[in-house]
Design brief:
249 residues, 6-stranded parallel β-sheet, 8 helices, 39% helix
Length: 249
Amino acid sequence: MPVLNQPIRALPETQQDHWYNAPQYRADDAWFGVVPERTAVVLIDLIDWQVAPDGPSIQSIRQHSAKRADYIVERCERVVLPNVARLVAAARNTKIQIVHARLASRHPAFCDIVPALRPFVRAADARDGSPACAPIPEVCATAADLSIVKTGSGAFAGSDLDFILKRLGIDTLIYAGVVTNACVMLSVASGFDLGYRQYLATDCTGALCDEDQADAERLMGFYLAQLVTTDDTITALDRLRTAPRSPGE
């Protein structure tokens, strides 16, 4: 039988300030304990058919709301793509793995795509290996990058991303891409439950309006991922690149 009037046990002191899967978390240093060789930048749907202003995805959005289409085009051009280019360059300089998570089909009838997205992907003729599904020039895909096909919104569902990252010894992820409150957020949610320490580069992501962007950042920042900017990340990566390593790191 439970004993009445017992004090409620509080969360462990080390857990009260974060939920970020960071075993060595420090409130005064968001990057404490991060090892570059065990880190990856995950680029969500930064591919031609998803972000090109005249591509199928933007045109589909435009049919329903020109305002929202104009918003994401402008945010990508002015904010997301310039910052992603900087982030990717800094990550490569720090020997961090780059991952391209691309919504594409490998089946001639698009049967591998989740039902809700299948008409959308079919209409775009988004087949793996086609120019439409290639990473955009701003991310400068190289042979050293990891390129995976996702068949749903999130980068982990319907892909072998988790298996590959675990084989590479990667335990920390930095996210960028589109759309912030859809494919990016679902990737981050899955990554949290898979045990990854996670960061969301907020100015490397784009939604369809300010409200959606702010809401997605608030939800993810609650405990799924630490919110950072490109400048924050580049400064941290430069420090991590030159910092002395402890034995075993």
